[in-house]
Amino acid sequence: MTSAIPLIGDFRAETPRQLDGARIGVVTFPGTLDDRDAARAVRLAGGTAVPLWHADTSLHGVDAVILPGGFSYGDYLRAGAIARFAPVMETIIAEAQATSTSSSPLPVLGICNGFQILTEAHLLPGSMVKNDHLKFLCTDQVLRVENTTTAWTSQFTEDELIAVPMKNQDGQYVVSAAELEQIEAEGRVVFRYVGANPNGSRNGIAGVTNAAGNVVGLMPHPEHAVEPGYGPDDATGMRNGTDGLTIFTSVVSSLAKGTA
Amino acid sequence: MPTIVVEVMPKPEILDPQGKAIANALPHLGFTGFSGVRQGKRFELTVEGEVTEAVLDDAKRAAAEMLSNPVIEDVVAVRVEED
Description:
The structure holds two protein chains of two kinds.
Chain A: E1 23-28, H1 35-44, E2 48-53, E3 64-67, H2 87-96, E4 108-111, H3 113-120, E5 127-129, E6 137-145, E7 160-168, E8 172-174, H4 177-185, E9 189-193, E10 205-209, E11 215-218, H5 245-257
Parallel strand pairs in A: 1-2, 1-3, 3-4, 4-11
Antiparallel strand pairs in A: 5-8, 6-7, 6-9, 9-10, 10-11
Chain B: E1 3-10, H1 17-25, E2 41-46, H2 53-67, E3 73-81
């Protein structure tokens, strides 16, 4: 059977062989929901997805790590607060902050609950509180990519507009006034909401990076916009949006080029 | 058994959306005398035996490092309650 649009589980022809070397770890905590979608996005981007378990301190030699969305540990205490103390996080925190010349810092992407975990782990500035309107928000959201120097955004063009789904209750990004000024001045806002601010986030911030640029977190879900037929609507048709895929092809290509 | 009570509140400069929603709902039940509500958390840490200085210090560290997030919350009380 042939089709212009690949069917689920059928990406034989699409996988670029030369990039198979990029191994991207996807962490599963108790309560993680989007680990399979994130792994699928990695595969569609030409990389190899490696499942990582929360109770395992080993990263099994992966080249980058994704903390996917969900409700780790039921979001008890605060979103991401318990997951931050999981054994796998100790290794991720250490490798993400590696400064020695022999090992470059590990590229880490936190999506939604993963972003919340990265702020709780103090790898990224700020924190998330409940949406200002207090409702669970599920929508297709337009974002502006404002930093294309990270391993996760290198294939976007500066100020490119992308549409990806967003679904959360604790999505309001808050940060101290001093830190807000600093991350804006240093160009560390990676994604910003376009149009009306959907949740009261400071300066409409949807995603940020750390000072070194290897750790990126964002609230919306790029892994849900990677395959025609299952993404947001776009100009070519219903659910055809695949803007999120560029995040994953960016890291796979950065790793292949040795720039991550 | 003694209990160490830890109280955590959202920072004053953080708009507390839950507290605001409660404040908006109160008048519907006829409670019109309250102009604002802020919602925080109370933790009760049970201690087997005596609360020594070391145990209390541990509670204070747990309050600062895990029970609260200093970006959005303040620890407003760590105290011992006997019963």
